[in-house]
């Protein structure tokens, strides 16, 4: 059981690292709501607020694993 919890925590940490490394602030959020925090987008991710989709190609397995 504790293994499952560790794996879950590891995945969460990985997400945080992915965002730190490849995340960019949504330009639409910055344009229309400069005083609010912009959504951090990974490649091909859609902003839930304004539906902007990050145009960068999806991360390769190597890039994904590298974070
Ligand atoms: Zn946005």
Please describe what this structure looks like.
It is built from 3 helices and 2 strands. A two-stranded antiparallel ribbon has the order 1-2. With 67 residues, the protein is mainly alpha-helical. It has a domain at 26-67. It has helices spanning 2-22, 27-32, 61-66; strands at residues 24-25, 40-41. Residues 26, 28-29, 39, 47, 49-50, 52 line the site of zinc ion (ZN).
Give the strand line-up of the largest sheet.
1-2
Shape: globular
**How many extended strands?**
2
Task: Give the H and E element order.
Answer: HEHEH
Structural class: mainly alpha
Mean pLDDT metric: 92
- In DSSP terms, counting alpha (H) and pi (I) runs of 4 or more, how many helices? 3
CA gyration radius, whole angstroms: 14 Å
Present as ligands are: zinc ion
Query: How far is it from the N-terminal to the C-terminal residue, by CA?
Result: 26 Å
Strand content: 5-15%
Task: Flag low-confidence runs.
Answer: none
Compact overview of the structure:
This protein is mainly α. Helix content is 49%, strand content 6%.
Features:
67 residues, mainly alpha, binds zinc ion
Helices, strands, pairings?
Elements: H1 2-22, E1 24-25, H2 27-32, E2 40-41, H3 61-66
Antiparallel strand pairs: 1-2
The structure holds zinc ion.
């Amino acid at each position: 059981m504790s293994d499952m919890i560790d794996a879950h925590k590891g995945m969460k940490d990985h997400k945080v690292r992915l965002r730190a490394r490849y995340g960019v602030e949504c330009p639409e959020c910055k344009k229309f709501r400069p005083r609010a925090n912009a959504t951090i987008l990974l490649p091909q991710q859609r902003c839930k607020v304004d539906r902007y989709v990050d145009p960068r190609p999806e991360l390769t397995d190597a890039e994904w694993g590298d974070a």
